Amino acid sequence: MKRDGWNRYSIQENTRPIRLPARTTAGDFLLPSGPGTISMFLQCGVASFAVALFFVLIPLVLVIAYSPLESLGTWWPGVTGVAWLAGWIGLVVGAVRESKANQEWLDEQ
After folding, report:
1. Would you tell me which of 39, 42, 48, 80 could form a disulfide with 57, CB atoms 3.0–4.6 Å apart?
2. Which tens digits make up the pLDDT trace of 31-79?
3. pTM of the model
4. 40 belongs to a structural domain
5. Rounded (5°) CA angle 33-46-66
6. Residues near 96 by Cβ (< 8 Å), separated by ≥ 6?
7. How confident is the model at residue 12 (pLDDT cuts 50, 70, 90)?
8. How many structural domains are present in the chain?
9. Longest dimension (CA), the chain
10. Separation of alpha carbons 87 and 95, rounded Å
11. For residues 2 and 5, what is the distance between their CA atoms, to the nearest angstrom?
12. Would you give the DSSP letter of residue 97?
């Protein structure tokens, strides 16, 4: 009798480990991806940072530098951070919805 390499001591003396099917592919182990990706998330963060920098931080710095508002304190970096996070969330939601709509349209074709 040919030795199959699966013999081992067990209570029933004839149990074998569960073997994987002979033809497994990467799709058998990976979860299907959704409409969003990590790259999309990071690109939206960079774009949101640029929008917050150019359209929130720079105008606020100009207003504070050329007006007597400098006595109000250091609230403007917090406003810029909130604008950055809000923009990031908005861009990610928009990009995921657009990607999902594109995929549905392609599936219909």
Report:
1. 80
2. 666 778 888 888 999 999 999 888 888 888 887 777 776 666 777 778 8
3. 0.58
4. yes
5. 155
6. 34, 35, 36, 40
7. low
8. 1
9. 94
10. 12
11. 9
12. H
Radius of gyration of the chain (CA): 28
Q: Is 104 within a domain?
A: yes
Q: Can you tell me which residue has the tokens 């504070």?
A: 64
Q: Are 79 and 56 in contact (CB under 8 A)?
A: yes
The answer on pLDDT for 7 being more than 60 is no
Q: Tokens 């400098």 identify what position?
A: 70
Cα–Cα nearest to 60, from 38, 86, 42, 83 = 83
Domain that holds residue 69: 36-108
DSSP codes joined into one string, 9-75? --SSS---PPPPPSS--GGGTSPPP-S--HHHHHHHHHHHHHHHIIIIIHHHHHHHHTSGGGGG-S-
Angstrom distance (rounded) from CA 49 to CA 73: 23
Residue 19 lies in a domain: no
Give the pLDDT score at 103.
Answer: 84
